[in-house]
């Protein structure tokens, strides 16, 4: 029997769900409201959309871009960054968001891999561009006079949005913590639906909210948390360079209702003078959202002491997944070291090595299924299908579910240490070490050992003291850790290697 083919006509009411469509809708309601702020510059919704439309039209009229050509942005956080992303993605050009901290060689490699045809550059990054040799970049536009001339250029016809919701919105490149960097293709639909879920979960993305965006827009999370406020008619203030005291002072002004931080930001804040912190406790925040790396329970309790227990959300996700789970403020104390329950419209399951779901409190690899997932990788100059298991994606993290369904990340699959045939999870050891009053940061890795296969090595950054006794560290661990989980190999360092999103590069530590 021949299978039936069902054709569903697109209804006349269909409207593509794109990132720019949300900002355009907000501009119709609040044309004179400030959408974006950076330093002394403000941009109203009316001005923002006018500039986006002009720049989008210029993509074909004056930049010579063909449909679906990739463009890149290399800049610290600034208003022009978001204008470029909105305009070029709306014109059907996936935007590759490049880290401003890339070396010259890394920049050339990523631009060539991504097949970037036009590159928008901040003056602070121009030196790297001039020093690099590109195979595909045909046009470089520098923010400033050249960019403004392009925005103000008269175009042949009014701009009409060209992107569909399944077209690629942006391509951030992975940090390379688990291998060679690769582009993560994020469609408009996935990002837009993620914004709606964020608005429901965090409660700080309404039209009356104001958000402080600290994380680099080059990363998936940084860009998402900068765009979500203006998708719904709120205001976003961009910060180019993080300064702990400045951020604490701005939050205490009572202007902001939401902020996204990575653990590195919080470590820097709580290293500030206690008297200064005490004088800046009052704020108007509804939500303080943390992501990108594990947030030690000790730091969570410092947040409660500083700003109260009703703000903190710790989120779990990845560039490919978006956001998979979140633990709300009310559960932070009773569910220690948890990343909460699945995000709205997101399903999570934990599988053993044979692909079977594990039971409560058993450890399995975490798989996610949601409408927020990426479309695949861009690698080697072409699109690569996502590595899915029956439609589910794993970022390589091991986790367990408790009896109430709360997710507890155990560790990254690649960070697990096997010593003497026993599985050891460094994250548990790091949580214990963070309670030591003289430890500012710590990372535990496995290194080769002739007898045990691997042994534990702890890299420790001390809190403002010149020397520290390794034996004292070992003794401290004995209260809370089994003997085989105690690292005997202690290395004191000035700083831990990190990527620009604050993740500790354990691979670099293992290679030392």
How would you portray this structure in words?
The protein has a 9-stranded mixed β-sheet, sandwiched between helices. Strand 3 (70-74), helix 3 and strand 4 (95-98) form a beta-alpha-beta unit. It is built from 15 helices and 26 strands. It has 512 residues and is of the alpha/beta class. The mean pLDDT is 90. The relative contact order is 0.09. It is globular, with a radius of gyration of 24 Å. It has 3 domains: 44-186, Rossmann fold; 198-412, Rossmann fold; 417-511, 2-Layer Sandwich (GMP Synthetase, Chain A, domain 3), CATH 3.30.300.
CATH class of the largest domain: Alpha Beta
Which stretches are low in confidence, meaning pLDDT under 50 for 5 or more residues running? none
**End-to-end CA span:** 64 Å
CATH architecture of the largest domain: 3-Layer(aba) Sandwich
Indicate how many domains the architecture comprises.
3
From the helix content, strand content and strand pairing, which structural class follows? alpha/beta
Report the average pLDDT across residues: 90
Strand content: 15-25%
């Amino acid at each position: 029997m021949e299978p039936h083919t069902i054709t569903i006509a697109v209804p006349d009411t269909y409207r593509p769900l794109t990132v720019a469509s949300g900002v355009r809708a907000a501009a119709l309601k609040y044309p004179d409201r400030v959408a974006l702020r950076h330093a002394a510059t403000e941009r109203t919704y009316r001005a923002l959309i006018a500039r986006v439309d002009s720049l989008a039209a210029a993509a074909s009229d004056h930049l010579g871009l063909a449909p679906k050509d990739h463009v890149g942005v290399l800049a610290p956080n600034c208003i022009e960054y978001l204008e470029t992303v909105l305009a070029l993605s709306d014109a059907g050009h996936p935007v590759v968001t490049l880290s401003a901290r890339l070396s010259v060689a890394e920049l050339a490699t990523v631009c060539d891999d991504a097949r970037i045809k036009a590159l928008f550059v901040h003056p602070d990054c121009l030196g790297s561009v001039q020093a690099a040799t590109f195979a595909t970049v045909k046009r470089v536009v520098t923010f400033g006079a050249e960019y403004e001339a392009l925005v103000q250029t008269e175009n042949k016809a009014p701009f009409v949005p060209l992107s569909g919701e399944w077209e690629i919105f942006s391509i951030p490149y992975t940090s390379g913590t688990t291998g060679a960097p690769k582009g993560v293709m994020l469609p408009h639909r996935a990002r837009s639906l993620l914004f709606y879920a964020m608005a429901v979960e965090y409660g700080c993305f309404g039209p009356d909210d104001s958000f402080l965006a600290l994380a680099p827009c080059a990363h998936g999370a940084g860009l998402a948390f900068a765009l979500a406020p203006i998708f719904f008619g709120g205001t976003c203030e961009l910060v180019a360079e993080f300064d702990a005291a400045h951020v604490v002072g701005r939050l205490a002004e009572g202007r902001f209702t939401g902020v996204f931080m990575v653990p590195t930001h919080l470590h820097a804040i709580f290293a500030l003078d206690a008297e200064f912190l005490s004088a800046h406790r009052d704020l108007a925040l509804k939500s303080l959202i943390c992501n990108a790396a594990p947030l030690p329970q000790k730091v969570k309790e410092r947040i409660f002491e500083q700003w109260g227990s009703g703000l903190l959300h710790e989120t779990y996700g990845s560039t490919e997944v978006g956001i998979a789970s979140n633990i709300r403020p009310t559960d932070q104390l009773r569910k220690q070291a948890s990343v909460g329950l699945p995000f709205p419209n997101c399903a999570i399951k934990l599988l053993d090595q044979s692909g079977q779901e594990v039971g409560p409190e058993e450890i399995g690899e975490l798989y996610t299924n949601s409408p927020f997932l990426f479309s695949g990788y861009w690698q080697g100059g072409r699109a690569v299908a996502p590595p899915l298991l029956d439609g589910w994606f794993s970022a390589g993290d091991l986790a367990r579910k408790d009896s109430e369904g709360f997710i507890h990340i155990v560790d990254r699959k690649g960070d697990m240490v096997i010593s003497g045939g026993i599985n050891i999870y460094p994250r548990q050891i790091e949580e214990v070490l963070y309670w030591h009053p003289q430890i500012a940061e710590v990372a535990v890795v496995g290194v080769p050992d002739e007898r045990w296969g691997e042994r534990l090595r702890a890299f420790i950054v001390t809190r403002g003291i010149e020397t520290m006794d390794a034996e004292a560290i070992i003794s401290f661990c004995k209260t809370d850790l089994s003997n085989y989980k105690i690292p005997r190999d202690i290395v004191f360092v000035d700083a831990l290697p990190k990527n620009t999103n604050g993740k500790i590069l354990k691979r670099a530590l293992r290679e030392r």
